[in-house]
Amino acid sequence: MPVMEGKAVLFKQFGGIDAIPICLDTTDVDELVETIVRMAPSFGGINLEDISAPRCFEVEERLKQRLDIPVFHDDQHGTAVVVLAALENAIRLTGKYHDTLRVVVSGAGAAGVAVTRILLAAGIPDIAVVDRTGVLHRDRTDLNPVKRALAADTADTTGRWGSLGAVMDGADVYIGLSGGSVPEDVVASMADEAIIFGLANPTPEIHPTLAHKYARIVATGRSDFPNQINNVLAFPGIFRGTFDARATAITEGMKLAAAQALAAIVADEARDDMIIPSPFDPRVAPTVAAAVAEAARRDGVARR
User: Is 7 a catalytic residue?
Assistant: First the structure.
């Protein structure tokens, strides 16, 4: 509840949106879906919070099919939008290219899946996704349906197998969404001008002190280091733009538009220790909202 109360405050402060935190005492997918559907007429949109994978994927998909208001799982898509925005500026600074970038995503839970999906949509094809067992690959027999689909969309492009250490060798980008830690020799094997996003809180998978020894650009989820990947950069503006357009859904195009708009805010002034705006930058929410509303109209889900 304190997390949701905090997010309700952030919705109001940054997006001018009234949000009500509601805790449901169940982890059953059917009960979650039916309860939310019955409450939905009172609300303009649904922001799902703290539903673990793989349940979160089914809950979100079923709600999107049944409701004509936007449904958004911030742990997935808010994270994905901000990661892509930060990565776009990091790519520009390092002179790398989307189509040749080698990316490792560590973690195949809610955030890992959503981040991978938005990177693929942004034109970054070479992504190795790693869970506790190793790289997701279509020949693995231990994958749930969500991981199996992700393996089909990534492994054939990368052609890479094995452990995290195996795929980190020569990688341009590491995105940590899993916790744990990465040994120094594995970090040292990355490509020149590497980009490291260690996003586990409070302890990044690769501490910035270590990351800076081998990478040019480093980001974390913490506010006491530069380049904080913070979801508040995304969700208030996304919902504000969705409501401004009276959109019936939040499309993939709207998420991409949010990321691109967020990156553009600091693109001309970006530097290694500022690849993403501050959450307190007053340009953030209005810029994201305008881009999302326009994308909603392009995607045919706007009612205004």
Answer: yes
